[in-house]
Amino acid sequence: MKDLFLKRNISLALFLLVNFLFTYKYLERFTTWAPLLTIIISLLYIFLYRNTKLLKFITKKIEISFIVAFIIMCLLIWKKIPIETLNVDRWSVITSFWDSYFTNKYAYFAKSFAGNPPGPMPFYFILALPFYLVSELGFLSIIGVLLFYWLMWYKKVNSITRIFILLLILSSFFNLWEVICRSNIFFNASLVLGSLIYILNQKIFTHKTLVISGIFIGLLISTRNIFVISYIICFLYLWRTKAIQFKQLAFLGIISLLIFSLTFIPVVYGHFEDFKQMNPFIVQSTFLIPFEYTILFVLIAIGTSFLCKNRNDVYFYNAVVLFISIFIYLIYYIFLQGFTQAFTESTVDISYFIFCIPFALWFLLIDKVNLNPLRNSID
């Protein structure tokens, strides 16, 4: 019981820390009261966490109205803040990628308005293609929230906890930042969370479920390779507890690798020599953080997989390891360039901390009183 409460508190702390970073960094540009306001916001979240029964008055209609209000707010923000006025180039990385692709140029030679090359894997851009075509990438921010909300309904989370988590997401500063900047990190991470829920929900891994899982893994690793961490923790736990056999893991790995490789064909076809000069593997090991650190993150994931005592722990340690990985990335640049340049001047993209949020929030769905997850099994 104490172990569960500790992990729940750590999960909440991860949410608070990430929100603290966003709130402090961007509020200080407008007011000298930023530190105090940031602390007050965090205390309000803690109060709500300790007193979720206060949310009993919120009916299903009110709950849905929160979602509708959020969508309307997004539309108003996008109308008020043109995408071209943003200093964040995540949207530009996507548009420049597809602009190059549709003019028969090698997509990974593209440059954003800030001069950055495309770093994510191909399926990241494929997911964004419909929204590139309608000229509004911000819809991915909405879909990310709706996806997480649907996962809560799918797992039959009780209404008070569901509303509490929904309020955390909708009121968080990092979610507002994602909406304004047309970011999709919460969306991508929620997709991975959804795949883990599917995988961990399997009592027996049949040929069919292995193929489906392999397709999920191959596609989602082809968004951002940091999600390798999630699947390492998950499948090492399943293998260690004999929920999956080694030959099944090998088959799953082959399917995943095949699907992952296939996502590169539309981009690499006709540009194989260009691919050898510039590709997401080069970008991520050169422009972001040295390859040695990637190996370190994998080793941390392998080590923490042995700490998982049950399937719910897979979500918890995903949140922890993803947070630690990005924190190491932050510290690396602080030592390299100093705090002001790394944090304040945004050499480090703190939005990467959002990777851990869906997993931390999902672990918070576990009942405060019972060791079992809320209502139906969440694992």
UniProtKB/TrEMBL annotation:
The chain crosses the membrane at residues 9-27, 33-50, 62-81, 123-151, 163-180, 210-237, 249-269, 281-302, 314-335, 350-366. Keywords: Membrane, Transmembrane, Transmembrane helix. The keyword Iron does not apply. The keyword Thylakoid does not apply. This is Glycosyltransferase RgtA/B/C/D-like domain-containing protein. The lineage of its organism: Bacteria, Pseudomonadati, Bacteroidota, Flavobacteriia, Flavobacteriales.
